[in-house]
Amino acid sequence: MARLAGTPVFDPAGDQIGRVRDVVVGLRIGRRPNVHGFVVEVQPRRRVFLPITRVRRIEAGSVVFTGKLNMRRFEQRVTETLVIGEMLDLAVHLGEQPMTVYDVAMEEVTPSTWQITKVALYKGRRREPRIVDWGEVTGFDTLQRDQGAAGLIAAFESLRAADMASALHDLPSKRRIEIARALNDTRLADVLEELPPDDQIGILGTLDPERAADVLEEMGPDDAADLLHDLPDEQAARLLALMEPGEAAPVRRLLTYPETSAGGVMTSEPVILPPTATVAEALAHIRQQDLSPAIACQVYVTRPPTETPTGTYLGVSHFQRLLREPPSTLLGRVLDPSIDPIKPEFTLHEVTYYLANYNLVAAPVVDELGRLVGAVTVDDVLDHILPEDWRERPDRDD
After folding, report:
1. Which positions ≥6 away from 147 have C-beta within 8 Å?
2. What does the pLDDT read at residue 390?
3. Which CATH fold would you assign to the domain 162-256?
4. What is the pLDDT of residue 33?
C-alpha cells in the first residue's frame, strides 16, 4: 500500500483528477481492517475522500474510479487510521518478537470490499522484510512515543517538495515533527520553504540550534529571511550567529529591508553574468536543475563582481532571446533596453503592478548605487499577497 503514494487517479473518462496521498482504514479488534477508501489530492492542493466502493481498477501506475468525486475536504474520523501516515514505522510484535512495520498489503475479499491481509515487517537495522498474515501481528492499537520515520519517508521519496509539505501539513503534529527531523538538511529545507509559517516555526523549534542553522543555510536566502522574520528576535539572532558567515551575509542583507517591500521579498541569488559571457554560457547556467522556472527565465548582466551586491547593473537577457541567438554571441549585445529595474523600497503593490503591467515573471532590483541586489519573482510576490492560510485549502462553499 505504500507504493500507492503519489499514484495518479483517473476518472471514467480517462482524465487525471489527482494523486493518491494515503489509504483510510478502520481497525477492528480481532479482525482484519476494512479499507474505507483513498485520500486523493486534487488541485489546488485539496485533499478529498474517494470511497473504495467507487474504485474500479488499481493497476501499476494508476487508480481508476467511477461515478462522481465529492470535492469536500477530507476530514479523518476518530475511528479511522491512515495507512501511510500512521501505520508505517510502527513498533509492533510478532509473537514475543519486537518488529517494525515496513508496509501492509490489501486484498479484495469480495467485490468492492477490501481488507488489509498481510504485513511486511523488519527487525533491527537490516531492512529485509518478512511478510506475515495480519492476525499474527499485535500492537497496531498502541500509542507510541517515538514511531520512527524511515518507511513514510521512503513512501514520499518521489514527491515534489510542495507535495511532501502538503502531506506533512495534514499529519498529526507529533508525526509531522518525527518525519521532518528524520529528513536530511537539504530535503527538509526544500519542504520548509513550502510549509505555512506556523509549521515552519514548530518544526524548527524542535531541532537543536546547530541543526536549525544548517537547515537555514540550505534554504534560499529570501525564504530563510522570511522564516527568521517570524521568529522572536533573540532566537533569530542566535541562529544567524550559528550560520556560516558566507551563508548568513545575504540573509542579513535581506533582513534590513521591510518585509513587505521589494527588498524584503526578493531573492539575492538570481543568475548573474558579465557582459563578456556568451549566450552558450548563459544557457548552461539557466539549465541548472535546482533553479526555479521564474529564476531561470532571464539572466542579469552586470559589471564584476557578479555576486550581489554586484558591480554596475547593465541589463537583462531573456531566455527566449537567448534561444534565438548564436551561441558565441556576447550577452552585452542581447540586453533588453525596455526593462527598467525596480528599487528595493518598492511596495508589494508597486511590484505587483510592475510585473503585471509588463507581463513579467521576474524583475531586477537595483539600489541607489546602481548595483543589482536581487530579483523579485512572481512566486515571491504570490507568497506574500495570498492569505496566510491559503495552504489550508478551505471548502469551496465556505
Report:
1. 89, 90, 91, 175, 178
2. 59
3. MgtE N-terminal fold (1.25.60)
4. 93
The pLDDT of residue 395: 47
Q: Are 118 and 134 in contact (CB under 8 A)?
A: yes
Q: Which residues contact 214 (CB under 8 A, 6 or more apart)?
A: 185
Rg (CA), the chain: 25
Taking domain 272-383, whether its CATH number is 3.10.580.10 is answered by yes
61: left (phi over 0), alpha (psi -120 to 50) or beta: left
Contacts of 381 (CB under 8 A, 6+ apart): 265, 348, 351, 352, 355
Q: Which of 79, 76, 67 is nearest to 28 (CA)?
A: 79
**371 and 312 Cβ atoms separated by less than 8 Å:** yes
The pairing of strands 298-302 and 272-273 is parallel
SS3 350: helix
pLDDT in the model for residue 396: 41
Long-range pairs for 107-114: beta carbons < 8 A, 24 or more residues apart:
112/52, 112/53, 112/55, 113/34, 113/52, 114/34, 114/35, 114/52
Query: Environment class of residue 343 by beta-carbon count within 10 Å: exposed (0-12), middle (13-18) or buried (19+)?
Result: middle
The domain ranges of the chain are 2-138, 162-256, 272-383
pTM: 0.71
Q: What confidence score (pLDDT) does residue 177 get?
A: 87
Same fold, 162-256 and 272-383: no
Residue 369 half-sphere exposure, CB side, CA atoms within 13 Å? 10
- Segments of the chain scoring below 50 in pLDDT: 393-398
255 HSE (CA, 13 A, CB side): 17
Instruction: Give CB contacts under 8 A, 24+ apart, made by 184-187.
Output: 185/211, 185/214, 185/215, 185/217, 185/218, 186/218, 187/161
Position 146 scores a pLDDT of 63
Q: How far is CA 47 from CA 59, 82, 88, in A?
A: 21, 13, 20
Tell me, letter by letter, the H, E, C secondary structure of 111-155.
Answer: CCEEEEEEEEEEECCEEEEEEEEHHHEECCCCCCCCCCCHHHHHH
Tell me if 266 sits within 8 A of 376, measured CB to CB.
yes
Whole-angstrom distance, CA of residue 348 vs CA of residue 244: 30
Helix or strand holding residue 372 (H, E): strand 372-377
